[in-house]
Amino acid sequence: MKTEIGRQRAVIARLHHELYQAKIHGSSLAKIEKLRRRMMAEEKKLNMMIFAAQVKGD
After folding, report:
1. Of 38, 43, 41, residue with least CA distance to 18
2. Does residue 58 sit in helix, strand or coil?
3. How many other C-beta atoms are found inside a 10 Å radius of the C-beta of residue 23?
4. Separation in Å, CA 13 to CA 7, 18, 35, 38
5. The model's pTM
6. ∠53-46-51 over CA atoms, to 5°?
7. Residue 36: is it exposed, middle or buried by C-beta count within 10 angstroms (0-12/13-18/19+)?
8. Which among 36, 49, 51 has a CA at the least distance from the CA of 9?
9. pLDDT more than 90, % of the chain
């Protein structure tokens, strides 16, 4: 479970970087919003994985 959580954290870090770059380079608001929503969905997935690991006792 730890490796899956690590991979998920890496995905979120990459999305965070993409979002940051989009904001810096003045991308369209639609693109920024799409990235933000995707990042939030991935964070939610990570939180569920962490919760499941805690319940399971990993």
Report:
1. 38
2. coil
3. 13
4. 10, 9, 12, 12
5. 0.83
6. 30
7. middle
8. 49
9. 90
Residue labelled with tokens 């799409």: 34
**3-state helix/strand/coil string of 4-40:** HHHHHHHHHHHHHHHHHHHHHCCCCHHHHHHHHHHHH
Q: Which domain holds residue 35?
A: 2-56
What is the pLDDT of the chain when averaged over all its residues? 94
pLDDT of 1 > 80? The answer is no
CA pair distance 21, 39, nearest whole angstrom: 14
Measured CA to CA, the distance from residue 53 to residue 43 in angstroms comes to: 15
